[in-house]
Amino acid sequence: MGELLRNGQVITTTVSGLPCEITSFIGGGGQGEVYSGKIRNQSVAVKWYFPSYLNDDPNIRERLSVSIQNGAPSDRFLWPMELVDMTGSDSFGYIMPLREARFKGMSDLIRGRVNPSFRARATTCWEVASSFMSLHSRGLCYRDISMGNIFFDPLSGEVRICDNDNVDVNKRPGFIGGTPEFMAPEIVSGRATPSTQTDLFSLALLLFYILCMNHPLKGRRILHIRVWDPPAHRKILGDAPLFIFDPDDSSNEAVPKSEDDLCEAGGNALAYWLIYPVFLRDLFVRSFTVGLTDPEHGRVRETEWQAAMGRLIDSILYCGSCGKQNFYDRDALQATRSAGSCWSCSQALVLPPRLRIGQDTIIMLNHDSKIYPHHLGAKQMNFNGALGEVVRHPSNRTLWGLKNTGTAKWVATTGSNEIKDIEPGKSITLAAGTKVHFGKAEGQIHA
């Protein structure tokens, strides 16, 4: 139960003058408490600050007013809508959209209360990177990325980002420094203040958590720390950070579960790391080696993460024995001439048909695969408005095809040089050697 407001209490929006009735307590933190409320029968969330916090962060009202005036960077942010006051109170708050119940917190993921598929995890990572791209493009930085302010739908991967009262202009001095476990090393050690560059480090760290379920800098060295106090924070995360998969220094290597039953020193990451393709692992290595000491050149940009997560989604394939999602790894395939084995059942993987578009794009043609505008040349990557999808033949269940779900005609050339028009709503059989002219792009199906 909250301490600041009570159920049935009415507070007032400062601009529109509308009453907001508090209906229930949601949770609290270091800054204040969050409640659900109603304005004209519309459910909203209300964050109300501790008076003591306002003394520490005197610019917060001005910062919120600017954010409200400018509006949200995208609909993925649970952005402040309006300030709220209460007669006789020495504090205030703001209202924001209420998070839907389908969105779960990062703690639900780490503690195993939800177990999203690899596709959902990759989609969550793509959405987080895209959201921060939209924020940074406005000249803003988040300042306090942590597990507590990212929520995701375990089925679709869609995200919501809260605690947006921490957002401020890039490099502007302020009270908020961040959450230690998610701060860039230069902030932890006191050498820098929050900026878009430090946000990029925090972003990479968050993506690593989503995909590998551990902190990238907490490996063997933390087993020798008896008290996780500020000096320990500074040593491990600020002054001498070392990636648990550093290719040149194993002194902070990830520790197997047999040595650390709590899996705080990288046990989960050991289980996940080799599942992912080389191209993704290389980005994390760069982020947590060069990126630890060279923010300008070593940190991975949002656009790079977007492209990598799109490629990761395109690389998904299903094990023919147990049905678990695995990944096509072109680099490993070229080195070993093998598709590898399933991480779950250890059976040899059999590659499905795949569509190669240009030199760089390869899409695994699974039963649920889709072709999106960015595959066919659109500059902006998104996963809305599929232009093609894999479908099963209506009368011959052993045949699969690629269906045109867009509005433009395709032209296909089969392996026997037969030319076919694929009108919207029609399909072409998934046969090796078939070339498909999508308009601006051309692809070829490989077996």
Automatic annotation (TrEMBL):
UniProt keyword terms in alphabetical order = ATP-binding, Kinase, Nucleotide-binding, Serine/threonine-protein kinase, Transferase
What domain of life? Answer: Bacteria
Membrane-crossing ranges are none
The GO terms this record gives for MF are: ATP binding; protein serine/threonine kinase activity
Q: Which residues form the Protein kinase domain?
A: 20-300
Q: Which InterPro entries match?
A: Kinase-like_dom_sf, Prot_kinase_dom
Protein name per the record: Protein kinase domain-containing protein
Tell me the organism: Capsulimonas corticalis
Classification from the root reads:
Bacteria, Bacillati, Armatimonadota, Armatimonadia, Capsulimonadales
